[in-house]
Amino acid sequence: MSESRYDIxxxxxxxxLGDAHVDRASKNITEIDEGFQRYITENVWxxxxxxxxxxxxxxxxxxxxxxxxxxxxxxxxxxIRATLNTGATRDDIRExxxxxxxxxxxxxxxxxxxxxxxxxxxxxxxSKGE
Length: 130
Fold this sequence. Notes:
By secondary structure, the chain is an all-alpha fold. Helix content is 78%, strand content 0%. The protein contains seven helices and no strands. The radius of gyration is 15 Å and the shape is globular.
């Protein structure tokens, strides 16, 4: 029996965002967002993130650029943390945010750099056991 779109999407979602994040998000699902969560798992994480045109690293970079340019701060922080799983490096993200400055504006990039610095500080602290 082949895996469902949801199961494939959930595997991809976990591989990018990590089990801890997905478990927390899953515990917070209610009847209000249950259909939406299923939709993004089946169509974003299975449909978009499983395409073999981009690597996870490339897809991560594109996602971060779009989130930064559109000012989606919470999602941006989440995807910066996810770079630990996608292979996008800090150099990749720094360069991505420089592109955001040019193509989406300095204020958007300034906010994105602030978020990146905070996310990386949290990552560094966690790796040191703080």
